[in-house]
């Protein structure tokens, strides 16, 4: 997932036979993924695109999201008043 966010997306249109499309659709459904994810996985397996960087930490993956929220209380994690009624 994070791999796709790191790259710039582009659209590719291609013609495949009806049996190929049916097989792709069935495989995607059986694996609970999208047809696009299957095609990207096949491209990586064939050596066309690089494997996702497995050395990335969780922080590396979400770093672009940190600090983006504006307007909330600055002491949310340290002020016990914000926990009043939590879990009730």
Q: Explain this structure to me?
A:
It is a single chain. The protein has 88 residues and is mainly α. It has one domain (2-67). Helices cover 40% and strands 0% of the residues. It contains four helices and no strands. The longest helix is centred in the first third of the chain and has 14 residues, at 18-31. The chain starts with a helix and ends in a 26-residue tail after the last helix.
Given the helix and strand composition, which structural class is it? mainly alpha
Total of domains: 1
For the residues shown, what is the average pLDDT? 80
Outline the biggest β-sheet. none
Distance between the termini: 35 Å
C-alpha geometry: elongated
Low-confidence runs of at least 5 consecutive residues: none
Measured as a percent range, the helix fraction is 25-40%
- Determine the number of helices (DSSP H or I, runs of at least 4 residues): 4
Which helices and strands occur, and which strands form pairs?
Elements: H1 2-6, H2 18-31, H3 35-45, H4 58-62
